């Protein structure tokens, strides 16, 4: 174990300036900060210093990281690291142990040379006892860490390990992948740029303003040289600006590789410039990220995009669970996982329908393939039925109307069959494009929504809610945007519709008894189990939908809806934070449950036996369910029963 290399008494003004830049100290008055400054000191710890040892070290000070970084981790009986996170400038160490009066609960080691402000335990405890807002910050922070602990316990103890599962998407920052910055002036010739790429053995060059090397104006890639120059017979002496792509798309150097991967897959951009401190420091490519992992989401994405036969998509779709399994093991939260599932499913659909159009010929009118339900919300898991429809432009005449009917009948039938072969089961309620009722022109779809909204029948509304989460999956997205505008406009005019939707949301019983015990099925196929989707997640989905329709928010994803409601001050930060955490925890539990069933050769479902969960998991699940009561109280105030 390394020892402190140096100890300094800190200048009060230096400490005060530091405190004013971090939470929750920035909420304290100047007199309190000056008093704290007189009691703290600065310590320097070289890289590799063990600051705290789990279960052993008595915590005498609160550590506040001024510069550098540490890793927090625990080890199992075999010495294997099971939980790990990294903390940097402005983060704290030791608060939980001080407040609880226990030894350190994590091992803490510096990962680089690190300076910390040290505040004596007694001074910190006095602040916690006397300042409620100050104490609330740490209590909230602890609750978030407990949620992360629950995720980690799920990941490491409920998902079996397999060799070759070395994923780093959630620990490596994209800035760590950037090598030497290679760039060229926009006035340089194409031939000069090609020579530089060959010399440096790179597949891209950033392009800068000739008068300012720091001003990046575009990017050229080896694909540009092949497609825009060689294939087109372009003059090699032309300036680079003739073939560059600009402005260049950027990501921050602190972005996790997973977030960058999502951006690449969503935009089909394979080279992104990396920024640090407002300055471009290099380029990251899809290849760089693919090298980090074995079961690569991006590799599967490329296979899907390059597939030339619809039948070839069948086996690729079956690979999605293995990719998602790797993400769960690495520590992805539910929102990230469902987003990745949605992206991969969307690309299966896009490629399949593109090839189907080539087979059948172009449609007689523009159309849009709609996705509804969990697909529309981008919240698919391993158990995803088909919920789709076709929305097309109104035919101009009877002849076009007949052509539309013939084309889309065959198109829908083939598409649904292909999706079944890809592993997406038929919808038991026949909410699919093959049902003539759900293959209609824009005017008819507008009529559907107007009817549901203007004269809401509670029974019919129960079945219609699946349609309110529609989004465009393929085709002419303008049609879906037009329909969404119509829905938002109509919904905001009809309070009685929103009243029925809100009361319907509150009709789902919370799966907890008066004494906060789980309410489970007492007999039948799912004895001693509860349906985490219907009883736990659906109230959050319904809550977010009601408020999104009320306020004209077009987003369909539940977490994105909640975030949009927070940004517009339609819900409090407290409601958003508790709902966001509770929803993610339940979705994580659902994904882990279904993945374990798949690995056991069982068809995935949503029925969980609380007795098979750990004590921590049961406690977190109960906490998540109690949040539903708070959401119901918000709706009850908005839409009280007369």
Structural class computed from helices and strand pairing: alpha+beta
What is the arithmetic mean of pLDDT?
84
Tell me the distance between the termini: 69 Å
What Rg do the Cα atoms give? Answer: 28 Å
Key terms for this structure?
disordered N terminus; alpha+beta; four-stranded antiparallel β-sheet; 16% strand; 21 strands; globular; 23 helices; 3 domains; CBS-domain; five-stranded antiparallel β-sheet; 642 residues; Jelly Rolls; single chain
Q: What would you say this structure looks like, in words?
A:
The chain has 642 residues and is an alpha+beta fold. It contains 23 helices and 21 strands. It is globular. The chain starts with 5 loop residues before the first strand and ends with a helix.
Layout of SSEs?
Elements: E1 6-9, H1 12-19, H2 30-39, E2 41-45, E3 50-52, E4 61-67, E5 70-75, E6 81-87, E7 92-93, H3 95-100, E8 107-110, E9 114-120, H4 121-130, H5 132-158, E10 183-185, H6 190-200, E11 204-209, E12 212-221, H7 222-230, E13 250-252, H8 257-267, E14 271-276, E15 279-285, H9 286-290, H10 297-306, H11 310-317, H12 320-330, H13 334-360, E16 367-371, H14 373-376, E17 388-392, H15 398-421, E18 439-441, H16 442-454, H17 458-464, E19 471-475, H18 477-493, H19 495-506, E20 530-531, H20 532-550, H21 558-567, H22 573-599, E21 607-608, H23 615-638
Parallel strand pairs: 10-11, 13-14, 17-18
Antiparallel strand pairs: 1-2, 2-9, 3-8, 4-7, 4-9, 5-6, 5-8, 11-12, 14-15, 16-17, 16-19, 20-21
Helix pairs in contact: 1-2, 4-5, 5-22, 10-13, 11-13, 12-13, 13-15, 16-18, 19-20, 19-23, 20-21, 20-22, 20-23, 21-22, 22-23
């Amino acid at each position: 174990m390394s020892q402190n290399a140096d100890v300094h008494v800190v200048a009060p003004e230096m400490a005060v300036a530091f405190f004013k830049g971090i939470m929750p100290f920035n909420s304290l008055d100047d007199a309190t900060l000056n008093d704290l400054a007189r009691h703290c000191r600065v310590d320097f710890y070289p890289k590799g210093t063990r600051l705290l040892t789990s279960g052993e070290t008595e915590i005498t000070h609160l550590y506040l990281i001024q510069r550098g970084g540490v890793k927090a981790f625990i080890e199992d009986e075999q010495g294997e690291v099971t939980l790990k996170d990294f903390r940097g400038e402005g983060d704290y160490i030791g608060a939980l142990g001080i407040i609880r009066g226990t030894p350190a609960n994590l091992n803490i080691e510096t990962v680089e040379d690190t300076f910390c402000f040290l505040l004596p335990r007694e001074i910190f405890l006095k602040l916690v006892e006397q300042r409620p807002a100050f104490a609330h910050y740490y209590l909230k922070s602890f609750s978030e860490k407990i949620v992360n602990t629950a995720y980690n316990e799920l990941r490491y103890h409920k998902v079996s390990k397999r060799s070759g599962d070395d994923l780093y998407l959630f620990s490596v920052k994209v800035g760590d992948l950037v090598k030497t910055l290679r760039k060229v002036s926009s006035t340089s010739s194409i031939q000069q740029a090609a020579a530089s790429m060959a010399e440096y053995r790179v597949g891209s060059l950033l392009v800068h303003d000739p008068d300012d090397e720091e001003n990046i104006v575009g990017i050229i890639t080896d694909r540009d040289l092949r497609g825009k120059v060689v294939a087109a017979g372009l003059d090699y002496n032309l300036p680079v600006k003739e073939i560059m792509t600009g402005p260049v798309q950027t990501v921050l150097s602190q972005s996790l590789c997973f977030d960058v991967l999502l951006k690449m897959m969503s935009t089909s951009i394979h080279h992104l410039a990396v920024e640090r401190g407002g300055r471009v420091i290099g380029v990251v490519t899809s290849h760089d990220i693919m090298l980090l992992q074995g079961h690569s989401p991006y590799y599967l994405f490329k296979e899907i995009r390059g597939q030339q036969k619809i039948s070839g998509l069948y086996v690729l779709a079956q690979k999605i669970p293995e990719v998602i399994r790797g993400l769960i093991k690495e520590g992805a939260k539910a929102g990230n996982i469902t987003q990745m599932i949605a992206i991969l499913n969307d690309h299966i659909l896009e490629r399949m329908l593109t090839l189907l159009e080539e087979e059948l010929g172009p449609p007689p009118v523009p159309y849009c393939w709609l996705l509804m339900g969990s697909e529309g919300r981008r919240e698919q898991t391993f158990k995803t039925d088909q919920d789709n429809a076709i929305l097309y432009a109104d035919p101009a005449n009877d002849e076009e109307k007949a052509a539309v009917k013939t084309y889309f009948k065959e198109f829908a039938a083939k598409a649904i069959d292909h999706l079944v072969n890809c592993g997406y089961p038929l919808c038991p309620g026949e909410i699919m494009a093959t049902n003539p009722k759900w293959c209609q022109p824009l005017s008819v779809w507008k009529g559907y929504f107007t009817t549901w909204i203007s004269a809401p029948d509670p029974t019919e509304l129960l079945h219609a809610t699946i349609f309110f989460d529609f989004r465009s999956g393929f085709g002419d997205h303008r049609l879906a945007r037009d329909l969404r505008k119509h829905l938002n406009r109509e919904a905001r005019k009809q309070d009685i519709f929103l009243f029925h939707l809100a009361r319907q949301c509150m009709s789902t019983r919370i799966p907890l008894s008066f004494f906060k015990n789980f309410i489970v099925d007492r007999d039948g196929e799912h004895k001693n189990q509860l349906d985490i989707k219907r009883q736990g997640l659906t109230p959050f989905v319904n809550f977010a939908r009601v408020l999104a329709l009320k306020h004209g928010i077009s987003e369909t994803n539940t977490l994105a809806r909640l975030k949009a409601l927070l940004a517009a001050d339609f819900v409090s930060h407290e409601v958003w934070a508790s709902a966001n955490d509770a929803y993610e925890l339940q979705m994580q539990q659902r994904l882990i449950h279904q993945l374990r069933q798949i690995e056991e050769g069982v068809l995935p479902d949503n029925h969980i036996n609380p007795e098979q969960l750990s004590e921590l998991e049961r406690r977190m699940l109960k906490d998540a369910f109690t949040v539903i009561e708070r959401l119901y109280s918000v709706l009850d105030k908005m839409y009280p029963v007369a």
